[in-house]
Fold these 4 entries.
Entry 1:
Amino acid sequence: MTLFAIASADSCVTQLQQYINAGQGYQCITYSGTAITPSGNQFALKGNLMYSRYFDGIRQQAPVKILQSDSYVCGSNLLNQPFDVAQPSPQPSEFVVYTNGTIQVGNKGATLYCSAATGNTFGFLMDGVVHTFVLIINPLPVGCPALHFGESCTVAPPSPKVSVSKKVASSWTTDNVEYVQYDVIVKNDGASTITQVTMTATDFNPTSSWNVILNGGEISLPAYASIAPNGGTFTWGYISTAAQISLFSIKSAQ
């Protein structure tokens, strides 16, 4: 059984109509396709298309991205990673799926092949290479989604490894009330210096405190605090009655 039967232009026009209608309603259409050359090099193509009345079809919103398996890099796991995004193929100057069942890639055109049995899957032949692709209608008001296909990105820095503990420094009794002085130790087990730490606490109502800033239900280190990496510590203290057992936790650190 063949995936595509050579269909009449009318056949693909009919199958394309739902995507053209969605595009005319200002919905973004995502193109996602593959191709393979006689030498075995695989291509992956992805891009967002919007309807253009001038072109009478759905046209690339930005240049369609093309990655190929022959562009590879040795990854950190010492395995070859194909489709290296740092070595993309040249992006087509033009990319349009026309309402008449044809497609333009760069300055070349081709007739689409389709079959009702393949749903939203289409195909075409260009320069001796068979392409297959699907079209995805993105709902309003989402617009054109991120492709996650070679765009620039940022990596969030690892969360600092910070812990908090306390110990009794001294205790005494005044007017039959026992008081305890605590040292609270904030420890940095991460690899970089930390200058800002915010903590929360339960049952915390000290009679006095130092080396710390109390702001409602949050506790912050002062501006002069700097905790060295790899086991550095910063100590602040407070006094409370012995009946008050406070528990501390780290909310944020950087």
Note: The chain is about 5% helix and 45% strand.
Entry 2:
Amino acid sequence: MKLNNAHCAITVMHFFGTMCWTALLVFTVAVSLTLSQAESDSSSRFVKDIDGYMSVCQRLGWEPKKGCFQQERLIAFHAALKHILRNLPVKTTLKFDDVLLNKGNAYDPTTGVFTAPEDGVYSFEWTFLSIQKSSVYLEIVVDGVRKAITCINQQGSLYISSSGHLLYELKEGNKVWIRTSHVTAGYLHGNKYTFFSGQKLKSF
């Protein structure tokens, strides 16, 4: 009789234990589904909020061509002279034929001309190296109009370099290049001593 009672007690405990584990499993699944639904709702609200912000930005005229959150295109180049150039006539365009960087493919080494692929503010730098008793005037032009000039005139050092910098707002299609000016350019050193570079500044 005592054995039967013990057996009944064990059976009852097993039954309630199974019920507890089942209830716990159902509770866990329910919580998971609830959290998943909440996360889904949160994601949906986030997407709707972003769409709303983009719409407001576009209505205000901020970055209307690209949208508010689209990554900007990288436009940058750096090119140097491969070889020495001598006795260049006035208004000779320099063709920097050793291209080290040309993101956006806006610089053409066959012509020496940079063509702005889009509107924006651009930064340009150039440096040249010359020798003793040589005179060199270099100017940077936008669509044929001079914007800045650098020079070395009958200098006394064995070698000397000069550099220039231009910040300028360009429209799509504007062309920029470096050319000789004033007098015949006596000597320009190659092998990366004379170079031209530029980039579009980021919009904020």
Note: Confidence is low (pLDDT under 50) at residues 6-29.
Entry 3:
Amino acid sequence: MKAFWCLFALGIFLQIPEGQAQCPPPFETFVLGGSGVEFCLYFDMEVKRDWHEGRTACQSLGSDLADLDYEDLHWQVISYIHKHQECPPGFKVYILRESGMEMCLNFASDVRRDWHEGRKYCKSLGAELACLDYEDLHLQVIDDLYRTQDMLDEGFHVGCTDEVTEGEWLWTDGTKVNLSSCHWYPGQPDSVENQNYCCLYQNNYLYSSCPNGMKLFTLCMI
């Protein structure tokens, strides 16, 4: 059984009718890890489109907008994108040891910014404040920081906050943060109301809740 999808550059996923024996060019095959169902995805990176333009373009292929809520399909798509993208200037490539997925990180150490200023800066680069909850990425970052003498006494803002609801930590994409993971420093995050932003703090570089308005360097990720 196959289902057919295509992906446009703005993150728009589209479906074309079932019934074909194999993925038609230029679609590629993705196999779900649990059921073995095969999906055909098309990554069109030539033209950036808005939502309606993307839908029109895929309808010209006999397809329509779709979602990725099928087992591990979304994760496979994320992995594919990271493996096939090139990090822009100023970003360093990190390769996850288990999956081989590539992540692009920028250590913005030119100016110390508060959390919101840092996020605005990341967005100006086409990036977002970093989330390091990917396999061994956090460990690789910590190792790099320990190897960089100029960074040893510095901290970095990363992309989660509980500014909306005290104690409810969310990533910038709205997903909940795992507060029991080993990424957090013991005892963190605390329940202090004026410490609403996550950072990698000096000496250990585990997640900590840092005071509002605190000026740190910024860690951006694509």
Note: Confidence is low (pLDDT under 50) at residues 1-6, 8-17.
Entry 4:
Amino acid sequence: MDGTAMEKGNEGISDDSQGAIFESDSEHDDVDDVGTGGNATEINIMEGATFRDVNHFRAHLQDFVIQEGFQIVRQKNEKARVTVICKEKGCTWRVHASPIADGITYMIKTFNPKHTCIRDLDNKSATSKWIAEKISPSLMSNPCLTVKDLVISVRQNFKINILYKRMWRARNMAIEINVGKYNLSYAGLPNYGDLILQKMPGFIKGCRPFIGLDGCHLKGRYGGVLLAAVSVDGNNGLHTVAYGVVEVESLGDSSVDLSPTFIPDRQKGLSDAITTFFSQAHQRVCCRHLYQNFKSKYPGILLRDHFWATARAYTTVHFEREMKAIKEINSEAYDWLDIQPPKIWSRHAFDIRAKSDHITNNTAESFNQWISKCQEVYGYIRGYDPTASRFD
């Protein structure tokens, strides 16, 4: 907010002058975006300036005090009058405001702008709530801004030093300003889950029966693990089939009569769960994980090249030729690979009903990478809508 937001005068406000009062839907007027490196708008006050009410004046005065870098003492801070002086001993700065004839609109009646003190970078007027309102637009556009990023940005834009702990509180408050409270978001998950189930026919109609499974740990207030099932559509684009927030990865108590192909990460728990709940399903292993295990026992560039050629083989002849080459290099490496059923790691043996030749779990890994820098539940649930079906 700037000086044009105020009207100078000593009388009541006429109908023609009401437009000069600053209008905003928020309690604290314009909120400057401090995350882009730009300077905050200059704040001014003057004798005769008018404000919507006492709260409007207090908010404007707080912005001004922080901008100018000095501490204040509130001699009077009532609905009927507000009198504020500079805290520095001997400084003559003073402002007094009170309502005009309507009893609501506030006006600065007297103002002495002269300062004899020096700038204070540790301004107590910059409360966590005030900071939260200033940084919330930046966090809305970039939820991955860290506390350190915001401390630097506020220092550059407002010339104040903010302790890490205060900024941490402010960042959490800004998140709630943008997306609501954590507990309310979690309370809405059952209804959100019902909506997802209503859209599930979209997957059946338009996606390949090929599903990558993976999970990542959440770093929000409640922690937990975000489990995700990611498929590919007819254009090989990623499509999130389902996700769930759980305390730990564990087995549930239901089964589904489907026969898709799953490619989980190399964890025994996921494989057991698929066998339990999808008895007709086919499974693959992620060749990237399989190769890491192979490499730890049998390193070497030549073996690496033949391993991937074997995994990518589209025909039995090609597969057997590459396996023979591995055997000639290292028979133990051959024996180790030969134990692995070809249908779980080589393209030539895949179930053709999956209509997908993926040999890695990059579908789910790509999803996790997408949210890796924002692993707080609010960022994912608010920022992505898996119920928006493209196939209905």
Note: The chain has four domains: 3-112, 128-181, 189-283, 287-349.
